[in-house]
Amino acid sequence: MRHSTHKLTIDNLNKLIGVLRDRGYEVIGPLIRDHAIAFGPVSSVDDFPAGWTADTEAGHYRLQPRADGAIFGYWVSPVSLKQYVHPPQQRLVKIEKQNGSLHIVPETPAAVKRAFIGVRSCDLAALHVLDRVLLHDRFVDDTYAANRRDMIVVAVNCTESAPTCFCASLGTGPKAQSGFDIALTERCGDAESEFLAEAGTETGAELLREAGAGAAPQEWLRQAQRACGQAASAQKRRVDAGIARQVADAQFENRRWDETGKRCLACANCTMSCPTCFCVNAEDRSDLSGAGAERWRTWDSCFTQSFSYIHGGSVRLSVKSRYRQWLSHKLARWQDQFETPGCVGCGRCITWCPVGIDLTAEYNALSEGVVAHGK
Prior knowledge:
Aspartate Aminotransferase, domain 2; 13 helices; 16 strands
């Protein structure tokens, strides 16, 4: 549908949360938790981190107050929507011993109604990537499908970019283009915040009507587009994913991998915080009495040595080889496999790397050689 525009006040936003809760949705939004701004259950606008942002750079994140009272004036945190749609732990099957017989009880994923408020364009793009992998490939992930089925998404356009953002170079932001029910652009001045609200679906338009949203002045949309354009222009980091295949092929033996491998701790922070990394492992757990056992699916990472273990040992023993695998897959091989890069330019892997390894710096250093030789 064509996006319709509306004016939303703080009171309207609060009513929107109430409407969603009345419809049986668990409302998830931004809040301050564990010294970061992260997603969590919210019941009103009062839960939002008004007046807070973060000082962020490679290997650095610290909350700090803003000069204004903006509700959505913050950068992405290590918590993305991935933890809700593709949970870190999921029981797959339960085995019970009853009267000398084993009973296998598969876990049937229950549909969950969640509404997310404050979703950035990069995280919308990440959902699109996960949809391609877990819904639209050869096999459907039942847990992911159940979590995605009844999801409501209220996006927030970025009018400021964090120093670690590079979504503009990948075409995934700062403005949300699709995949949302409602998209908000915050207008924060000396007075209380107001929002340009764009309805992306019929459900979104209906929710805005129930929240009492009014008509938006015509110039608001142009101002929002200009502010998002300025946020894109302000980004200093960028990657050219269009040459990623050539880079991965031509630079497989580049010494840069050795240098980065010496810095990398193989801690997997980058893959855990990444909104698209989806790799998992299966674990069998049994109780001491022998009366039962369970199989669980847990997040895994290509940075763990056991991830590539096959009979006889691990395929990638060195940290260098594991970092090369991750970066090459994220930007190049993902395109071969799923027709899209696996990176959305959110910058989480940069911010939450303990030693400050910068994906954009590593990739651009490798790509310089490819461009120079015309490969």
